[in-house]
Amino acid sequence: MFIGLDLGTSGLRALLVTETGDVVGQAEAAYPAEHPHPGWSEQDPADWIRALGTVLTELRAAHPEAMAAVKGLATSGHMHGAVTLDAGGAVLRPAILWNDTRSHAEAAELDATPGVRDLSGNIVFPGFTAPKLVWMARNEPELFARVATAMLPKDYLNLWLTGRATSEMSDAAGTSWLDVGARAWSDELLAASGMRADQMPELLEGSDVVGPVLPERAAELGLPEGCLVVAGGADNAVAACGIGALGEGQGFVSLGTSGVLLAGRDGFAPRAESAVHTFCHAIPGAWYQMGVVLAATDSLNWLGRITGESPAALTGALGDDLQGPGPVRFLPYLSGERTPHNDSVLRGAFLNLDIATDRTAMAKAVMEGVSFALRDCLDALKGTGARLDRVIAIGGGARSLYWCKLLATVLDLPVDRPEAGEFGAALGAARLAICGVTGADPSAVMTPPAIAETIDPDPTLVPAFAEAQARFRGSYPQVKELQ
Fold it and tell me: Taking the domain 2-237, which CATH number applies?
């Protein structure tokens, strides 16, 4: 038996699976994020430890025999967070999370530093880890002077379990401290943000074994003696392991709070100016690239809050038959945007509102705007040489058949909808644990899910949506000028 953990921004999910990936049980525990100032987002790492105890206790109560047979576990974690420890291993301050934007000025300065983009393969975004430490140096100098180790969230969980400070390539790639092509910490990148190599955890691949769970931790958590902790990976990389997107031509589109279009890569081919992320994969010798839309289903959730309708009701009102592009245009930049604009102060807009515009027309415009933004991501990915033959649709928005038809037509790609079941980050983490403990080949373990249906682009509507996409793209500079 193996456990996959998904350390999310709002909670921890645990999945108990067999060596063949069959799900035996699952459990979840929530924890809060704190926002003490505008743009700040923090979390107490102790909450992650408490959540781990909660989910393992629940699994042990429901599946005692299976839990007694657990051989290993691995964790998928939200990226870019900064967990800082002193020389004794104590947490110095609450973890600064990926969606914290306080270090936007520091990010811009690092991004303008010669060599930083070339080595890291990426723009330094405000959410990345390195600018957070620069912010600490400037605003919390006493704490910064005591930083002995800087870690990512899921790596802190691994440290607590094993006593060994490690990170792995997919998560480290989002710090702006990693030479992503060489898969190694860069002294030059570290120095640019005032950090040193001795403050960095040891680097592993995602399927490498960190070590056994400490005996006292195993006893506390009810894990078998000798249970191994495998390094795990960054959430999107591990989600790619869960749906079998490992190499060229393979990928997924995620309609979650944010939107992600991910493409597996066999080599390192960055194009930082496109605002495409180029990161190491969670498996050895592979990379991936992704475009990110910061507000995907979050845009629909926002519309739901102000209209008093649930997102499901808003999308359901459109039916299942795809309609041509509507006159109302929505720019989904409610939280700024990453790909392709790299603009943290950009904000959204509705255009062409009419006295007859109702909430269904606005919901249609929101879905189209998010889809057009994802098409922007696809074009940026293509600019790096990435290839996508088709995509698997995941995330809450993928439950809408209308939205999947819209995406297929806007992206002009077949969209596969998986059968009901597990195929996300928790399963991907369990698959990494299986590979780490058994030595199995990732390509044999990380296979795609069974597909319930494939949605092809509607050839009668592809040209109309291409024209609407061009109008959408042309709106960005005009709206930006007004802000």
Answer: 3.30.420.40
For the chain, which residues make up each domain, given as ranges? 2-237, 244-418+450-483
- Catalytic, out of 235, 298, 376, 416: 235
Q: Is 418 helix (H, G, I), strand (E, B) or coil?
A: strand
- H or E segment and range at residue 381: helix 359-383
Question: Which stretches of 222-345 are DSSP H helices?
Answer: 235-243, 297-307, 311-316
What is the spatial distance between Cα 185 and Cα 178, in angstroms, rounded to a whole number?
Answer: 4
- Nearest-Å Rg of the Cα atoms of the chain is 22
- In single-letter form, the type of residue at position 285 comes to G
Question: In DSSP terms, which residues pair with 329 in a beta bridge?
Answer: 351
Q: 480 falls in which pLDDT band (50, 70, 90)?
A: confident
**Residue 394: count of CB within 10 angstroms of its CB:** 24
Would you call 317 exposed, middle or buried from its count of C-beta atoms within 10 A (0-12, 13-18, 19+)?
middle
Same fold, 2-237 and 244-418+450-483: yes
Is 155 annotated in the active site?
A: no
Question: pTM for the full model?
Answer: 0.91
Residue 333's CB is within 10 A of a number of other CB atoms, namely 24
Instruction: Determine the Cα–Cα distance for residues 92 and 398; give it in Å rounded to an integer.
Output: 40
Identify the CATH class of 244-418+450-483: alpha beta
Q: Which residue has the tokens 């180029």?
A: 278
Residues annotated within a binding site: 79-80
pLDDT in tens, 457-475: 999 999 999 999 999 999 9
The per-residue b/e assignment along 51-70, b for 16 or more CB within 10 angstroms, e otherwise, is: bbebbbebbbeebeebbeeb
Q: Which helix (H) or strand (E) holds 261?
A: strand 259-265
Q: Is 201 exposed, middle or buried (0-12, 13-18, 19+ CB in 10 A)?
A: buried
Helix (H) or strand (E) holding 431: helix 425-438
What is the average per-residue pLDDT within 327-352?
90
Q: How far apart are CA 172 and CA 129, in angstroms?
A: 9
Q: Angle, nearest 10°, between helix axes 462-482 and 401-411?
A: 90
Annotated binding site for substrate: 79-80
